[in-house]
Amino acid sequence: MGVIIFNGVSSIEHGILVEHPPNYDTAEKDCEVIHVPGRNGDIVIDSNSYKNVPRVYNIAVGSTSRPYAVIANEITGWLHSASGYARLEDSYEPDYYRLAMYKEARSLSNTFGHAGRATINFDCKPQRFFKSGDTSVVVPTGQPIWNPTFFLALPIITVNGNGAGVLRIGSYTITISELDGYLTINSDIEDTYKGTVNKNSSITLTDSEYPKLVGGNNVISFTSGITSVSIVPKWWTL
User: How confident is residue 106, by pLDDT bands cut at 50, 70 and 90?
Assistant: First the structure.
């Protein structure tokens, strides 16, 4: 029997048994295909993104000490505990997690007032994130960080030091005009900050692009003023 962990709470806490492994659904590429009459082949407009995917679990619950209504209410509260996306993990893919939301109605069968079965369907962002990609890595200047996937990762970068400096990550260049201790460059939300203080005015980005980590080696280098760089790489796959 499997285990689901959603929004930090395990299915075990609610006496839920996952009856069999879920299907492995891959994301559909978000692109537009246009056919032009008289022209061989279709035109593809690729958005370089992917659509959401379902993650479906068949569950069973039961208790001789708790009534059916109590069990059903606990499960409903758990599934609707998050506002928007929350972290979803399970025992079938222990090295990954997803960002998922639960928004559907659910029917839990009633077996003699103490047990039931249901299908729960999470709506997930297309990425399966590596848990290892959430670990911060200190990268010395001149050294690479290796992306083990084919997909562009959006890292969270902490730059330490004082004064001005230039940080290069692969083909991306970040010029920092003011560094007082540290600042964080978050490529996922495209924001730069120090704690709760906005620091977007302290950096200049090449072509206004936040850095991404391409598949394979990404060489990191930085100039004086910057004493160290640590990266949470956020690797993901489909």
Answer: low
Query: Angle 94-133-170 (CA atoms, 0-180°, nearest 5)?
Result: 150
- Say which residue, 7 or 24, is predicted with more confidence: 7
pLDDT band for 107, please (50, 70, 90 cuts): low
**Of 235, 70, 231, 200, which Cα lies nearest the Cα of 137?**
231
| The model's pTM | 0.88
CATH tag for 4-126 (out of 2.40.30.200, 3.40.50.1100, 1.10.3330.10, 2.40.30.260): 2.40.30.200
